[in-house]
Specification:
The chain is an alpha/beta fold and 191 residues long. The chain is built from four helices and six strands; from the N terminus they run H-H-E-E-H-H-E-E-E-E. Helix content is 36%, strand content 15%. A four-stranded mixed beta sheet has the order 2-1-3-6. A two-stranded antiparallel ribbon has the order 4-5.
């Protein structure tokens, strides 16, 4: 797809602010997670974008979603995460069906992850990321199918109101890296 080509120098960034209490309320009302709601929104927007630009595959997109492996109370300063691969909704699904499909796929990916040790999950993710990097450097980069279509991260923000020299923080917009073969990264941050 148009979002899975070799990454070149020309890039752009967009930011969006969502009403967090509204998204949280919606998630609770539908008995899904906030991530499920956000993945559903992203999925619908990507299918519409790809359809309008002649690139819709007709197949569900795959979101790569980092999952923390850090146990509560662990304060070590190292990476303890893995990538989950979540199949998003079907092309012609209604918004409700799409949300249910994303929720089911997310729950399935988490259940699969519980079958492995944190070390195995982390090692697998590093291997996949390394292979994606290698493919991005080879001339085969655009000929091999992508690992996923979009990387979606949800970075925890502060539960307290933040200030800088007395001025309240009104927005925080994280910038993240792009993986070879996956030219779209969506990073959420609550503040």
């Amino acid at each position: 797809t148009a979002i899975n080509r070799t990454i070149h120098r020309a890039r752009s960034i967009a930011v969006q602010t969502l009403d967090a209490p509204r998204v949280i309320h919606f998630a609770h009302a539908h008995r899904v997670t906030v991530n499920d709601v956000v993945l559903t929104i992203i999925d619908r927007a990507l299918h519409r974008y790809l359809r309008d630009h002649g690139g819709d595959t007709g197949a569900p997109l795959i979101a790569m979603v980092p999952m923390s492996l850090r146990e509560e109370g662990d304060t070590r300063t190292n990476t303890q995460a893995c990538l989950l691969y979540i199949e998003l909704g079907r092309e012609h699904a209604t918004p409700e069906q799409r949300l249910r499909q994303v929720h089911a796929a997310s729950e399935h990916a988490k259940a699969d992850a519980r079958e492995y040790t944190p070390t195995a999950l982390s090692d697998h993710s590093m291997l996949v990321i390394g292979l994606a990097e290698l493919m991005g450097r080879l001339p085969l980069g655009d000929r091999v199918g992508p690992v996923g279509n979009v990387l979606v991260s949800n970075v925890p923000g502060s539960d307290q109101r933040l200030f800088l020299h007395g001025a309240p923080l009104r927005g925080a917009y994280p910038l993240s890296t792009l993986m070879p073969g996956c030219a779209l990264n969506v990073t959420l941050m609550r503040h």
